[in-house]
Amino acid sequence: LVMGTIPVLGSPTGLTGLCPLAGLSPTSSIHVYTQREVYGTVGSHVTLSCSFWSSEWISEDISITWHFQAEGSRDSTSIFHYAKGQPYIDDVGSFKERMEWVGNPRRKDGSIVIHNLDYTDNGTFTCDVKNPP
């Protein structure tokens, strides 16, 4: 069975702006790159790629968060978070036993893998990268 589209937000034009001291410093942007659409087969796995680039040094405090918005829903939920050098897979929800961290922030990679795909995985996945300060 072929699974429907899993659109991923954050095309090359998507930017996450960071401003350490609002009004006092220019904004430093992180450019986040993802695939526009990802297709998978029920029961298989899919890699959701998230790479990023910044003209600033990648700090030890970098954080990466993946959100999921089910098809037809207005609500988005956090399904994965990377902070302080550690990946944190949410221990509730439909992804808890099926997600794998394959990213490496030092290589500017925030990718995850979702295993054992199901029709309920149709929706929008968003990768959010923050590089404090």
TrEMBL record:
Residue spans making up a coiled coil are none
- Highest rank taxon of the organism: Eukaryota
Membrane spanning residue stretches = none
A single GO BP: myelination
UniProtKB keywords: Disulfide bond, Glycoprotein, Immunoglobulin domain, Membrane, Signal, Transmembrane, Transmembrane helix
Q: How does it sit in the membrane?
A: Single-pass type I membrane protein
Quick check: keyword Transmembrane in the entry?
A: yes
User: What are the residue boundaries of the Ig-like domain, all occurrences included?
Assistant: 26-133
Compartment(s) of residence? Membrane
Looking up InterPro entries in the UniProt record yields: Ig-like_dom, Ig-like_dom_sf, Ig-like_fold, Ig_V-set, Myelin_P0-rel
Q: Name one GO cellular component term.
A: plasma membrane
Give the matching SUPFAM superfamilies: Immunoglobulin
Entry similarity comment: Belongs to the myelin P0 protein family.
What PANTHER family does the database record attribute to this sequence?
A: MYELIN P0 RELATED, MYELIN PROTEIN P0
What this protein is called in its record is MYP0 protein
